[in-house]
Design goal:
Elements lengths: L10 E8 L2 E8 L5 E7 L12 H6 L4 E5 H9 L4 E6 L5 E5 L10 E4 L7 E6 L4 E3 L9
Parallel strand pairs: 3-5
Antiparallel strand pairs: 1-2, 2-3, 4-8, 5-6, 6-9, 7-8
Length: about 140
C-alpha cells in the first residue's frame, strides 16, 4: 500500500498519448510500484451538477474521471495504482486502479456520442491526497 510519508518524486517511465494528445504518464514510485497519473487541472474535477467544487466535495459528488480504455490498459499491464497529477498545483490524488471497476463506488458515463469516451468516475473520498511541496521564489 502507499505510505502517507513524504517520498521522492515519482520517476516517469512512459508517456500515455492518444494521437498527439498527452493524457498522462506511468510513473515508478520509490517502493517500485507503478502508478498511472492522468494530467488534469483543478477545473476538471467532476462536480456532479453542483455549482462549485466545494459544494460538490461537501455533497460527496466531486470525482476524478479516467477513460475506460486507459483503465483497461492499466488492468492488463497490472498497474495497481492510478490517479491524477494536477498540472496547475503539482498535487497528486492516488487510488487503487481496481476501485474504478467497483460498481458500488464508481459511476460510468458514456460521452462517445459527443466525440468523447466512455468514462469511469470515482469520488475523491476514495483517493489518497499528496500535496506538492511548496515552491520558494528565486532570489
Amino acid at each position: 500500500m502507499l505510505s502517507s510519508s513524504p517520498s521522492p518524486e515519482p520517476k516517469l517511465l512512459e508517456k500515455v498519448k492518444k494521437g498527439r494528445r498527452l493524457y498522462g504518464g506511468i510513473y515508478e514510485l520509490a517502493g517500485g510500484q507503478r502508478v498511472y497519473l492522468a494530467y488534469r487541472k483543478r477545473k476538471e474535477i467532476y462536480r456532479g451538477g453542483e455549482q462549485c467544487i466545494s459544494d460538490a466535495v461537501r455533497e460527496g459528488k466531486a470525482s476524478w474521471a479516467l477513460d475506460d480504455a486507459t483503465l483497461l490498459m492499466l488492468r492488463a499491464r497490472k498497474i495497481e495504482f492510478a490517479g491524477v497529477l494536477m498540472k496547475d498545483t503539482g498535487d497528486k490524488w492516488i487510488t487503487r486502479t481496481e476501485l474504478f471497476f467497483d460498481r458500488d463506488k464508481a459511476k460510468i458515463m458514456n460521452f462517445t456520442g459527443r466525440g468523447g469516451a466512455l468514462q469511469r468516475y470515482l469520488p475523491m473520498e476514495h483517493f489518497r491526497f499528496r500535496r506538492a511541496p511548496p515552491k520558494l521564489p528565486k532570489r
